[in-house]
Amino acid sequence: MKQVYYAWRTIVNARSTTFIKVLSLGAGLMVAIVLLTIISYYTGMDTGYRDYRKLYMVWTQPKMENENREPSSMSFGPFSQHINEELSDLVESSTVVTNFYSGGGYFKMDGQEVNSMGVAADSLFFKTMGIEVLKGNPSVELARPGTAFVSSNFVKENFPGGDPIGKHMRFFFDSEDVEIVGVYKSLPPNTSSRPDIVLSMPTVYKLGNNYVGHGWNDYLAWQTFLRVKKGTDIEVLNKKLNNILQKNRPEADGLSYEAMARPINYGVFEYEYTRNMIVILLSTALIVLFIAILNYALLSVSSLSKRAKMIGVHKCNGAGKGTIFSMFIAETTLIVLMSLVVTVATAALFKPMIAELYNDSFGKTPLLDKIIIALVVIAVTIIVGGVIPAHIFAKIPVANVFRRFRERNSLWKRILLFIEFAGVAFVMAWLVIITAQYIYISNKDRGWNIHDKALFMFSRYEPGKMDGIINLTRNMPYIEETAYSAFTPVWGHVGEDIYNDEGNAMFYSPYDEISENYIDVMGMTLLQGRAPKNVGEAVVNQTFIKKMNLREENLLDKNPNLTVGTDRHNRQRIVGIIKDYQQSFNEEIKPLIMYYDPEIVPYISIKLKEPFNANFNKLEAEIKNHYPESEYNLVSYKSIADEQNSNTKIIQRIFLSVAVIIALIAFVGLTGFLRDEMQRRSKEIAIRKISGASSLLIVKMITSGMLWIAVPAVVLGTVAAFLISGMWLDSFSVKVPYLTLYYVISAIVVLTLIVVCAVAMTRHKACENPSSNLKSE
Predict the structure, then answer these.
(1) pTM of the shown model
(2) N or C: which end of the chain has fewer CB within 10 A?
(3) Cβ neighbours for 287, distance < 8 A, ≥ 6 positions apart
């Protein structure tokens, strides 16, 4: 207890130093804890199922002679039934799920739409997935039509304090009556598929094969999950899965499929962008944490000359090295605990900004997980931040109580300062690159005009109303033109296999169904030919032509006919070529075929006259007036594009905050180092001034010494940022030009700031009367 008392007295007596330590350490701990919590949230994705390591999903990879497509998490409808029947020696159970019911009229209660996500599943769903059932018998109830289970969250929101069992819902635009027959425990927020409603599979089968295919010859429209038995060899399982697949869906028209079982949480790490972001956030969190810790250690070591006599007095009174060591550990512990107050206060201050980070993953993380992460961070801080100064102080000899102590070995401080400078350079380079990339992709031409168009869609597709919107908008004076399409160039397209005249699958391509004026309205560039205006006519982009191994110059002369998908009646003749355009900057340009469709399809693109914002508001008011009871969405294409870039903007905000905090920490460390350095060299500076050295020469001497530390540190930090940021930039299909120049500018800015700070802090000491520094103690 004496050590704690002495540590507390030291903290109280050095209020200004303590305040600086607490402020810088608290800010660093806040950043580290928030980023590590976000990482924990995402690395724990899809682990909320019972015994999740035994839960697998069946992925399917379509294969062609000239092209192997990426594996898909979707599979064929009958797969799970065959798995249960033929692989009972390897698999406990398997279930089939379809996962796309969400809002837009899918579910209604008491005449009101319920905006909850639902899935359809068979009777083995809860057993296979490992989800706790609170009420009901799914093995019986999910085997009959017109039934559904709901989550505990759904019950809280829609039946507060009541019992949902026996209540009814309407499903699929009022076409089916569904009874609630059970309740299950809601899954954690960090779960990829988190339904609030589980429909029985027979309910979906009643809708017919036109709604969703569930045969071996239909689309990959289902998700198949399986729970393996203990000791199951996954390679053996995959071989048997492919035996089932080849037996029921053999190769046809040059197209075959391969099945593979992958862990339930495989999809989290499948995407390169997600993997890279975890690495980036982890490296940033560790850098900020250790810079905050080392900055604390630097401030403590820099006070060595001032505290040497105090330590000597303690040793004269019988304190050994162990006592001195434990006293400084106690001091570090007290300061870290005080820093937590700053951490909590800072987190509360920036709560809205933290909530924007990756869908509020910090707020959704369970409190216990946050506490564990905070305790680990605190333990590391105390151990690392306390041991370095404690070890140095414990070695001070007792003789220092009788004479003035001057530390001669400043290697520790220089190493710590070197690490801080490297960290600042690392974060600054990141900030510059992210900002440059964000500005670049926000302003880069996509190959079509996103600035003067609005996108309209009803929540559910109703052809009669679509005709009305087309006629309404075409008669408005502030609208130039209106077109329609089955998909959009910002949200992407679904795809089909492209077949040649011999009926062989050539490659996979996204497609769209468009109006005659769609290409002109969207501002796309028609390179050759014309837009499709008759049924059976299509345009393709340049990448599509490359996939066909043909040249643009003679494509239209060949007058090629192609079949899109397995429907042999969907034959299209290419009548035009459009310039490649960018759908998203996070993926490469894909082949695209767009063909004419005389029937109005779901998405309506509206080209507005200037001023865009005022006319957009007029359009919104007009549609609301004509369709007051309908649910619809009206958004600008620009806002959708900005949303696509939101992840980059979030990262930019993270690094901006981190850069400010780490610069503050480094400034505090630099101040402490220079103050101690000037005190340690005060007599040398005085003698130099008496010998004729000017104040400018003294400042130059101190600053040049600082640059010997700063230059290699900044180079190292910038190079590290270059290596790691390359992984992040690889997730973009386009990159900001002149990247090297940005790294160089970043390094120069950091070095300039260091020099300015060093000059500002040494100038006063350099201008002092030298006689004041030559007085005897």
Answers:
(1) 0.74
(2) C
(3) 423, 426, 427, 662
